[in-house]
Design brief:
The chain is α/β, with parallel strands linked by helices. Helix content is 38%, strand content 23%. Strands 1-2-4-3-5-6-9-10 form an eight-stranded mixed sheet, sandwiched between helices. The chain has a two-stranded antiparallel ribbon with strand order 7-8. α2 (59-70) crosses α10. The longest helix has 19 residues, at 254-272.
Length: 277
Amino acid sequence: MSIAAAATQNPSIQQHHHNHRIIIPNKNGEKLVGILHQSGTTTDLVILCHGFQCSKDTNLILNLAVALEKAQISSFRFDFSGNGESEGSFQFGNFSTEVDDLHAVVQHFRESNRVIRAIVGHSKGGNMGLLHASKYHDIKTVVNISGRYNLKAGIEECLGKDYFERIKKDGFIDVKKSSGSLDYRVTKESLMEVLGTNLNEVCPQIDKECRVLTIHGSSDESNSVQDAHEFAKIIPNHKLHIIEGADHAYNNHQDELLSVVVCFIKETIDQNKGTAS
């Protein structure tokens, strides 16, 4: 049986380990809610970051936590502000706030004497890992799963081709659910922040000591696999792993995804044993 299937079908797996709910305030005083999967007595920790309109309970994030647990690696999965159980209102973009949220989480665990071995993020969460690495230079390993390189293409996909004219006219764009009710509102300010984030400038600022693994599905329908090749060109210390046939959520490729991530993190921990991060 696959790791992913075992995780969802066998609740007893959870009982050999300790899961703690932890609340960490971000710099705006909003409560970020997360689950610590403590495996064994080690102080090593991996932080898991969810994607756009997802949460810490998204299958892919949950499966990563369980796969790491089985490999005796502790992890912490949390909701960014305005998402899941965390406080705050949902925002489109919101990159600088989310990078600050991630940093608040990093700081919290540092102060609890944990050694943060890696940040692992899916989709937009992968982007947050990269942005954090380029800004704070304090984590030596980032796993970017299906992150988006071309942010403008993402905006067009969400908002339509004429988004710029519409936001100039109205000052905002409302994105509707298929039922017709409001999903979220995009403000001009949040749009300008996304447009102003140039990964081509940001990624080369990641330290050469920081190992980055980009994993991408060749059949990703949300973020083109070409994005992964762009990251490979500009990140100083980069490894690329394309999973043939995988879609954005790795629906039929969970096991390969999980084993690639776990192997990379194990390798990182083994390489760094005895050196404090």
